[in-house]
Structure formats: C-alpha cells, structure tokens
Amino acid sequence: MSQHVLLNNVEHRMLRVHAGHGAALGDAVMRALTFPAEFRDVQAHYPIVFARDGDGRFVPLALLGLEEGENLFLEGTRWDATYVPLSIRRQPFLVGVSGEERLLHVDLQHPRVTADGGEMLFQEHGVATDHLERVKSVLLALHDGVVATPTFIDTLVQHELLESFVLDVKLDDGSHNRLAGFHTIDEARLQALPGAVLEQLAREGHLLPIYMVLASLSRFRDLIERINRRRAAAA
Questions:
Q1: CA-CA distance, 137 to 90, in Å (whole number)?
Q2: Residue 226: its pLDDT value, please?
Q3: Interacting residues of 40 by C-beta distance below 8 A, sequence separation 6+
Q4: Taking the mean position of all CA atoms in its chain, how far away is CA 174?
C-alpha cells in the first residue's frame, strides 16, 4: 500500500533511496507511462501503445514486456537499454499540485525507500543533494509532459486515428502469446487525411509524435527476440 507524503528536509533528513534497478525495487512491470515529448527517446527501444485508464481516457504507454509483471529489459540489476522512461526513473517520487504550486512527494512504502544504503536526499543543513535535484528535473519534465498529453489524445480521437489491435506471437519453443487490449495509430486513416489536416497536425506539434508511435512498432520484434532468448537460456 502506498504512503504518499510531502517531502521535507526535517522529517526526511536521513531518508535514502535506492537508485539502481531490480525486480525487488519495483521495476518488474510490463508498461510505463509516457508522453508525446518523450516519444522520440522511447521509440528507440520500446513499442508505444495506448490504453484506457480508470476514467476511460486513452493514455500512451511504453511496453516493456508482453505479459503482466514482465520487464524484458530488466536483467538482474541492469536495465538493458540506453533510455529508461521518466515514469520509471521518478520512483519513488511524485508531484503534488496545490493551486499553482507543484510539490514534491515521496511514497514511504515504495521498495526503493530505505533508512540505510542508497542515495541521500539532503545534505547537512537540509540542502538538497545532487540526486534529489536530478529527481526534481525528471519530475518536472514528466509532470509537464503528462499535463500536455490530453490535447494530443483529443486530437487523435477527433480524427479517429486510434485503432485496437491484437498481436499473436508464436515463440521459438512453440508456445503462443497474445497481446490484446491496446490501441495504436490507424496508419491507413492517417494517410487518408486531407493535406490541410496534416498541415494543422504538424503546426500544432502532433504529427511528429504520431510518426514516432508508428516507428516504435518495429520494436515488437525486439521484445519477441528477448522472450525467445530468455526462454532458451532457461531451458
């Protein structure tokens, strides 16, 4: 169970966080929240798809695996990619909003939080450490990106550019995997849009992230190869 509290340099002066990677640190996840401004970096490693959240709205996700709890990029304590999504890197911190003010919170029940070992958050006299300053930068970029995402999603919905898909995979060991419940860009629908609409999408900054989503779909081959390698190694 989460325990989100406002971070402060008095109560949490001795708090530390593990900055590495590992299943025990909460990294064994199939998906990671992403946002249009991050798509260029994400598409180099992960397929970008869309799913509905608890409120029924579409949100963009970076797929790290094809099954719940499966992160194919996690190899022990090593993350096998040069880019880690910001929504993973920000753990165990999050942004709280009070009016116009953005406040830094920490989940005290997150497995990364510890009283010893790991990275310190505050120096003497309560000054933030370099690690905490980096966390703040990650959270700022993530928060601004997530806030800007609904406009992008509304545009996709307006032009009927989202379509559901099912991915059926036969692995080298003969087993079958099916990925369902996600959406992607309808490429045929995109190509059929009038030039004026495409120009508007480009002008509003939506066209590039759309193409980044389409480019990211080639990363499904990498996910399948990673599954095959893992199963072959475990055989």
A1: 9
A2: 96
A3: 208, 212
A4: 30
- Total tally of structural domains belonging to the chain: 1
Q: Over the stretch 145-173, which tens digit does the pLDDT of each residue have?
A: 999 999 999 999 999 999 999 999 999 99
Q: How confident is the model at residue 220 (pLDDT cuts 50, 70, 90)?
A: very high
More confident residue, 1 or 126: 126
Q: What does the pLDDT look like over 111-141, one tens digit per residue? A: 999 877 889 999 888 899 999 999 999 999 9
CB 210 within 8 Å of CB 161: yes
- Give the domain extent around 210: 4-226
Residue 180 lies in a domain: yes
Residue 63 has pLDDT above 80, yes or no: yes
**Would 231 be classed as within a structural domain?**
no
Q: Is residue 235 part of a domain?
A: no
How are the residues of the chain apportioned to helix, strand and coil, as percentages rounded to the nearest 5?
35, 25, 35
The burial class, CB within 10 Å (0-12 / 13-18 / 19+), for 112 is buried
* Within a domain: 208: yes
Give CA angle at 171 (165, 174), nearest 5°: 120
User: What burial class does residue 121 get, using C-beta atoms within 10 Å of its C-beta: 0-12 exposed, 13-18 middle, 19+ buried?
Assistant: buried
